[in-house]
Amino acid sequence: MGDKAKLIPLRVALDEMKSLTKGWYFRFSNDKIPPSFSSENLAILSDFVLHINWVESLGDVNYTRIGNISLGAQLVHGTILKPGQIFSLRRALGNATLKRGFGAGPVIKHGVTTTTVGGGLCLVSSILFNVALLANLKIHEKYNHGTDLWGEDRFVGLGLDATYAYGILDLKFENSLNHDIVIEMGVNEDERFLWCRILGQEEDKYDVRIESVIEKELVPEIDEAEKDYQKGWEVRTLRYVGEGEVTYDQREIYRWFYR
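RE: above sequence
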């Protein structure tokens, strides 16, 4: 077992301790709807679609990336949360290992794309964050990618991505509504897109508006022509509900890096 793998149990234990101190631990739920369940009478509270880009430089890794996303979607699909219960992506997915069917997919480290088992699950995390945000659910934990690697070709806007690393970076949100909700997710592998929606027993009668604003451009202290680099950003994301009540307010940093 590699050094990084040996640290995973410790990182998970630290996450569990944090959840205990914050009062989340006994409110987590991975309950699933029964096979006979029909969602046709439920209201759609939010939905989101993400295109899965085919990256030529990744070659066959594209296939395992899509496979990881598809497996992640299966593990999340059908999750039901009662009022006050909390969703944790780490608990829903478990550890992404070869034995459990995950393959080597791309991840971003220090502004560089590399591969690791389970790579690609950040799309699962990002789409979940967006549907939770649009459904006005309470966000407890969310992390952006450290750099804006894709620039104008990024799969979601700045402030709307959610990175994920087992035992290190999780996505946690709460059903802060007054009725049960169901998370549905799936992948269309032929047309290469990931879809997700949150359903509820009641249609909530308010408008939700998301706004992400670049507050600062981050660049190295050199002449721009001296060395090629990707800009960084300081971004603030807000969620407005109804007449303008702010129910989410998060500032995040994307570091600049040399290409």
